[in-house]
Amino acid sequence: MIERSPLLDALTHALMIVGLIVTAFPIYVVFIASTHDLPSVNQVPMSLIPGNHLVENYAKVWSKSDFGAKMLNSLIVAVGVTVGKVILAAISAFSIVFFRYRLRMVFFWMIFITLMLPLEVRIVPTYAVAADVAEPLRWLVWLFGIELALPPVNLLNSYTGLILPLIATATGTFLYRQFFLTIPDSLVEAAKMDGAGPVRFFIEHLLPLSRNNMAALATIMFVYAWNQYLWPLLITTEQSMATATMQLQKIVPGPLFGQPPIWNEAMAATLMVMVPPLLVVIFMQHYFVRGLIASDK
Amino acid sequence: MQIRPFAAAFLAASTFLGGHAAQAQERQKFEFWYGLTGRLGEIMEEHCKRFNESQTKYEAKCVGQGGYDKAEQNTIAAFRSKQHPTLVQIYDAGTVNFMLSGATYNAPQLAKDFNMKIDWSAYFPGIANYYATSKGEMWSFPYNSSSALLYWNKDAWAKIGKSKAPETVEEWFDDLRAMKKAGVECGFAFDYDTWMPLEQFSAIHNIPIATKNNGYDGLDAEMVFNKTKFADYMKDWKKLLDEGVARIQTAQTGKTILQAFTDGTCASMLSSVANHGVVGSTAKADLKWGVAKLPVYKDFKRHNSLVGGASLWVLQGKSKGEYEAAAAYIQFLLQPKEEQWFADVTGYIPVTKTGFKAMVDGGFYADPKRAGRELAIESLTFTPPTAVSRGIRLGNFTQIRAEIRAELEAAFTGKKDMQAALDEAVARSNQILRRFEQTFKGKQLP
Amino acid sequence: MQRRAAFDNLWLAGALIAPQLLLVLVFFYWPTVQALYWAFSTQPPFGGANQWVGWQNFEQIFSDSVYWNSVRVSIIFAILSTSLSIATALLMALMVDRQLAGHRVYRFIYFWPYAIAAPAVGLAFRFIFAPDAGFVSAVNQFAPNLWNPALKGWDAMILIVIANSWKMAAYNFIFFLAALQAIPRTLIEAAAMDGSGVLRRARDVQIPLLQPTLFFLLVINITESFVDSFGIVDITTGGGPARATDLMVFKIYSDGFKGLDYSMAAAQSIVLMLLVVALTFIQFRYVERRVHYA
Questions:
Q1: Which of residues 185-224 of A touch B (CB under 8 A)?
Q2: CB within 8 Å of chain A, chain B residues 284-303
Q3: Domains B28-145+307-369 and B148-305+395-439 share a fold
Q4: Cα B314 from Cα B140, distance rounded (Å)
Q5: Cα(B380)–Cα(B294) distance, rounded to whole angstroms?
Q6: Radius of gyration (Cα) for chain B, nearest Å?
Q7: Whole-angstrom Cα distance, residue B261 to residue B249?
């Protein structure tokens, strides 16, 4: 953009730097805490100069918590949720926005309402479903008057059990709907003129246009899945299935009697667990760059 | 052809590992869920490891649940779907829920069915009575246990020429005021936790918190703490606060009472003996400190203090082999050697007299690092437990604690008069009790 | 708002939406219907003998002043943190989108807060804003008791609003930026040719085109501040002091999860859900009308 507005540019820079400080300072504090030993991290106020226990703290937490294997689990779960969500949300929103049928608003609201009740408050019955997914199906068939002996399907301690309930949310569907509604009708008409059916329209026209939104959604979903701890904590009892964030929960001490808070290690673990989502952000930023998409139409 | 040696090595390794795994599979496994986190959670893991290495027949699989409340909740969710562990660590406030659950395999039955060698009379009465049914049977096995003490700063007391900790509440308060005059900025740090001022205080003064002997005699108990000496105690604390002698220290103010004590800011606090080790390891270098039994109002005779912590429950619906393994684990934990190791690394107290005696004889408490920890036992066993000093058996006690806490916050921050706040706390607690009674309609406390 | 042009293949439409519906039915509606039943009964924690009690649980919560307090603080929290996080994120995204020198660095850093797990965010903020320990303690030395979230309700509320907005602003930033970058370059250049400056263009071109995203974020932010604020409250204020930050979802969690009163928690969940559904409905009915899609 060839234009000059020095005053505004200066203001923009100033504001962005303020934003940078506000954003980064808390993270800096967490980082500093992870470089001290226990007595100095408990000092009040804590020093803002890095201590010299960084390597020691990180090495200790890494080996103590077996983070290697746990991060792999987290990665599998987060990728599973992201891919599942990006695809399912796209096709369900496609169905709701571009097809003409009476139930589409009902379906939209049915999916949408899932945003309104977080997993935390329905965790006990949700656990029961994960312990035997066949139960609701059994019930459903029974409603239709069929006696069917479905064997119990147990999702505890499995990737499927970790992934599926996290996909059953509405954020993605809603986001795609918002985006699909901005697609001009003329585009659909033109595609139809070219003889494109719904599938071809979806793949050849809609998906390339949705690239930005998909990248944003994928980033958000990855981080969301990565940071889950309540659900994994509940349904995994095998150490081999444990995830990194749930391990973090075990390191960060709760408010118990006689609980020595080992802040330096807890903060080191926090930062370590944060690295993979940040890498995903760096990777995904590539897709936010302008010029690759609809811009030049 | 370079692959060959690798392949051979791999084959050898997998045979070895396979053989090893097969051997391990012969062990009878069982699951144990625990609530402790942080360093204490690691110690739980170590305790399991010690058991697994001590013998070859059984294997404990220990799973941390990330908190006491989560351990309880997760166990219940799992039990409803028949996926629960054999053994679970449940905190003191969850005792009633488990007693009424019908989901437990009770300790005496387990001991009988699996020929466990347990001397029930060896448990400290203060601990045994807290967890016991009306028939005097313990349904769970006390595990990590603690009691409360007064932590005092010897240097601060030296400024008013005293070298002994106060015995009575009156003496303590006078000391605090004298110290203020002598230049001690903060004599006493407290937070809103109810365990110290309400539960421990009421026990050592032998005054009730609720009717029906603190709930032991029935689910229809009603709260009475707004009309006991506890109300005066809280009003006195408020006075200390207003005079600037005491301070509120919570995680939200930036320093917990523990931090305020260990960095020398505040000269005394009431806390669990389980913090003894932490105070020792985090206190600033030149801090001279000691512990003493909780102060008592001078018109009252001192009684025993309460046990805090958690006990181990065995749950129904598991196989005979799993019960046998769990029984072996419990038996293992009760060995004096294990009790001492556990007390040493955590700061918790031994649960049996035999364990305690072995530790005294072994010179455990002679170590200056641990000096004073035995006072917790002295406090816990000061008198035989009475009908109200033995413990508290009230439904949904976690919620009740939260209600009292919120009202104390309102009173100490000046939003409400103390008496009005306590009256409200009683009314709200009674609502919770009535709800609990309704939810468990037709059930009797064992 | 509804599209004119559309396809008619019903089987395909059904097949496309079926997987999502199935997941939602199994993992959301099935458990929720059970919770609904609990709301009208008393449910012992370990299961077993439920007793049907009709509206009793609801009558009890509606007659409780503490419950109404939690509704009130939840609404205040939702309004404050939604406006703060959307406004800052929009400003940041517009500025980054100008692509001045260093915008890649800003863009990268601004997203960080969202990558941190909620408990850690809470810890960092509690630490920074603690009156005796943190970095505002200096302020308190000049003006004692100016700031004390441990004793003053409003300070505690401000604390959780800032902590939540800090995190949500990062979330909003990503979506705003994605949407801004999707605005055709030519459109903005054309406006620039016509002589409209940066601010004019933001007002006349960019923000109107952001409306669908803005609406999406408005709905998501309001919803999230009602239903997903548990982690931050739990670590920073614990609902206090004296219930000043006792948000509805936190109360549900403490009553149900910690207190094991499943029925009361279920009844409160239903009320929370109805409240959020109503708010969302209002937004769709009245706000979305003003949204210009293509």
A1: none
A2: none
A3: yes
A4: 7
A5: 11
A6: 24
A7: 10
Check if CATH label 3.40.190.10 holds for domain B148-305+395-439: yes
Tell me the chain B residues in contact with residue A70 when contact means C-beta distances shorter than 8 Å.
none
* Domain assignments of chain B as residue spans, ordered by start: 28-145+307-369, 148-305+395-439
pLDDT at residue A3 in the model: 62
pLDDT given at position A294: 40
Question: Please, which residues have CB within 8 angstroms of residue B186's CB and are 6 or more apart in sequence?
Answer: B245, B246, B247, B260, B265, B266, B267
Rg (CA), chain A: 24
Which residue ranges form the domains of chain A, and what is each CATH number?
Answer: 66-251 (1.10.3720.10)
Going from the N-terminus, what domains does chain C have, and what CATH number goes with each?
Answer: 64-290 (1.10.3720.10)
List, for residues B169-213, the tens digit of each pLDDT value.
999 999 999 999 999 999 999 998 899 999 999 999 999 999 999
HEC sequence for A169-196? CCHHHHHHHHHHCCCCHHHHHHHHHCCC
Q: Cis bond leading into A45, ω under 30°? A: yes
User: To which H or E segment does residue B344 belong?
Assistant: helix B336-346
Residue A45 contacts C where some CB pair is shorter than 8 Å: yes
Q: Are C47 and B100 in contact (CB under 8 A)?
A: no
Q: What is the pLDDT of residues A258-294, one digit of tens each?
A: 455 667 887 888 888 888 888 887 788 777 655 333 4
Residue identified by tokens 């005092």 is B152
Both tokens of residue C116? Answer: 């941190």
How far, in Å, CA of B386 to CA of B202, rounded? Answer: 12
* Tens digits of residue pLDDT in B141-159: 999 999 999 999 999 999 9
Strand partners, B145: B309, B349
Instruction: List CB contacts (< 8 A) between B72 and chain C.
Output: 260
For residues A179 and C216, give the distance between their C-alpha atoms in angstroms, rounded to a whole number.
Answer: 10
Give the C-alpha separation, A98 to A184, whole Å: 12
Query: Has domain B28-145+307-369 been given CATH number 3.40.190.10?
Result: yes
Cα–Cα distance for residue pair A187/A56, rounded to 1 Å: 59
ipTM of the complex: 0.83
Which residues of chain B have a Cβ shorter than 8 Å from any chain C Cβ? 69, 72-73, 76, 79-80, 97, 100-103, 192, 248-255, 396, 398-399, 402, 405-407, 409-410, 413, 415-416, 428, 432, 435-436, 438-442
